[in-house]
């Protein structure tokens, strides 16, 4: 996705049904142009299904602090996986 409006619309779409959201992150490394972080997010979706995402962000910033490149990877576990 490119542009603030496209990113904003996508996040509104994918998070609309989520509740009880818990998010944590830890910076693993940084350089002048950005950094790498480990993140974890847990939330519920309709039907009381709990989802946990565990992943990595790589962020590259412009000189004025705007994101010029954003990459993410994650693994997903649901409460249904444990049933």
Give a short summary of the structure.
The protein has 83 residues and is mostly beta strands.
Features:
83 residues, mainly beta, Nuclear Transport Factor 2, Chain: A, four-stranded antiparallel sheet, 4 strands
Give your account of this protein's structure.
This protein has 83 residues and is mainly beta. Helix content is 14%, strand content 60%. It is globular, with a radius of gyration of 15 Å. Strands 1-2-3-4 form a four-stranded antiparallel sheet, with no helix packed on it. The protein has one domain: Nuclear Transport Factor 2, Chain: A (Roll), CATH 3.10.450. It contains one helix and four strands. The mean pLDDT is 92. The longest helix is centred in the N-terminal third of the chain and has 12 residues.
Show the helix and strand layout.
Blueprint: H1 4-15, E1 19-31, E2 34-45, E3 49-61, E4 67-78
Antiparallel strand pairs: 1-2, 2-3, 3-4
CA distance, first residue to last residue: 35 Å
CATH architecture descriptor text: Roll
Q: What is the radius of gyration?
A: 15 Å
The residue ranges in which pLDDT falls below 50 over 5 or more consecutive positions are none
Q: Major β-sheet, in short?
A: 4 strands, antiparallel
Task: Please estimate the helix content.
Answer: 10-25%
Q: Pairing-aware structural class of the strands and helices?
A: mainly beta
Percent of residues in beta strands: over 45%
| Average predicted local confidence, pLDDT | 92
């Amino acid at each position: 996705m490119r542009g603030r409006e496209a990113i904003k619309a996508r996040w509104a779409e994918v998070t609309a049904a989520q509740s009880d959201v818990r998010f944590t992150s830890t910076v693993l490394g940084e350089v002048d142009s950005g950094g790498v972080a480990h993140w974890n997010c847990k939330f519920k979706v309709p039907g009381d299904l709990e989802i946990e995402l565990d992943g990595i962000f790589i962020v590259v910033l412009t000189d004025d602090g705007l994101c010029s490149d954003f990459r993410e990877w994650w693994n997903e576990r649901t409460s249904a996986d444990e049933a």
